[in-house]
Amino acid sequence: MARVQSVAGESVSSQPAEVLSRSTVLIIGAGPVGLCLARVLAEYDVKSVVLERNGTTTRSAVFQLASNLAITDNILARWPKMDLTNSRSMELFRRLGLAQDLRSQGVASHIKCPVLISTGLHMDQCVTKWDHPSVDEKRVRIAQKNDGTMPLEPYQRLSQVYFEKWLRGLCDQNPNVEVRYNQKFESLQECDGGVKAATTDIVTGEKKTINARYVVGCDGASSRVRRGLDIPLDGGPIPRYALLVHFRSRDLTRLHKQGQFWHIFFIGQTGLGAAIIAQNEVDIWTVHQFLPLEKDPDTIDSYECVYTALGALHGRYEIKIDEILVRSIFRPNIAIARQYSSMNRKVYLAGDAAHQNIPTGGYGMNMGISDAYELGWKLATVVNGYAHPDLLRSYEEERRPVALSSIERSGVHMRVHNSVAEITQGRPEKLDEKSEEGTRARQLVSDHYQLNDGENRDLGIEMGYRYKSCVIVPDLAQEPPWSPRELVASTWSGIRAPHVFLRDGTPIFDLYGKYFTLFEFSDGTDVGAGYLIEASEKLWVPMKHVVLKNEDHAHRIWEKRLVLVRVDGHVSWRADKLQDAEAAIQIIRTISGKSTSYQAEMKNGDSHVVPEAFTSTVDNSTQRAEFQMEKIGEFQQ
Predict the structure, then answer these.
(1) What distances in angstroms separate CA 101 from CA 34, 85, 370, one per listed residue?
(2) Does residue 56 sit in helix, strand or coil?
(3) Structural contact between residues 493 and 518, judged by C-beta atoms closer than 8 angstroms
(4) Which of 356, 455, 482, 537 has its CA 20 to 30 A from that of 172?
């Protein structure tokens, strides 16, 4: 049983102190979420200091996707866990002007992304597959549909190793970001002026205190920030663990025996037996072999792990492996922090520190990116003096319900794979029998996967959520129906405003301002936009005003004459007409956290839900001062 124990450390008041400016945010953890947060803050000219306990961001193996680079000595921690930046994350990177640069780091846009379901590569054909389009094909579909039910940006395949390296480069070049490596966060203490964080330099042993107005814990699943705040973590792991082997091979003839793939899920005796991920479509792959908890991973050779995984039900399937890059174990876990901030709302959690999920669906790091963007623009708006600190209350109110639905959905996706054991009545080998029973079993499994194909396709989960918080003006209209699969084209308050191309081909998304944007679909009549403009100026809340004429198609999709949109694309308020200046003042006060008059009307029961259990998990529990699981991975600690 691996355990990470909370350490109180030396009293922060007795250590030498560094005082950060009131406009500088202290971030704990320089993983993808911490670096994203720093980059978002920098967009608003808000400085950040990022503390990272390791000597670099990607400390498991430094390698390039298209060339050979030696592995470093630090080979046991971070992994290329994420391999897909989803459409919502790509939209947010587009807001930062970084989408195209990110795409240049990843898999080429013309390459398709099929997911195969297989009994092993000894067989000539897979059992069934999910056909995910290439980025280029997805762009064509988005342009053709243009009805508000599609994202603006397609997804992008990119290994987390390179994602982090790219982010680190962006932050290193930005004068508003200072990343300090080999800095271990020990403990914190909230005080009247903010937060005192105790740190240790791992190289020199120097201890000191950093005083900051705001601190954000982006320090992973075992978050010392979360444990230091004594915030409960509710949830549990799946009943097995995975042995991960990351390797190089150009044996495409053998690997592509059943066709080119992004993922292959291999059916095992008790459900999902193994999986392989094509990291770069050239020579880098990751195998996940699922094992019972009692199995000692040290008894399994890395090469044999790959061969066994690829052979699945039919035994070893050898390929030519050029190099084993790194191996580790990983225990998939679904859990959520009961709060996302400290009592005084000076300390916040983001990413795995706040929520954890099974990789199926690819929600984990993508949720973390959205956490970073949401918290980033809100912190910046407060620090820059354009909003009341109560705006920050909405971070938990909005993001925690999203995490609850997403992490549960990851368990649902996992159950789809494990249900094959029931469908085949414990005899998955009959899927390859040339018999009537075999044909029937193959059809049943194929139908099962095609009926339950939401993994990486559930846009409702990924970006169709509705924010309900103290800074969203309640909508008097009936809430539109929601489904995990589809995006609903609506501007109902709290929803992400629909993507639509205007008559000249401009995405309406690209017209969003840096803080708030008032869209006015004008037919020449006065609908009261001036009241909002005057109110925003009076209350010193930045608001861009966009007047759209003769945009009937976009107006039909956006539904109202006036739609007030935040920088993240979510609707703050909408109406066909604003009647008076007093109403405008109330709207601007609400969206900037300067008014709480709408709180009594909010029905946001999900923001503090304590789940009893999650799909596909066992041993659900509540942890506070420690983080422990059997067969925990090094990079989970």
Answers:
(1) 19, 13, 19
(2) coil
(3) no
(4) 356
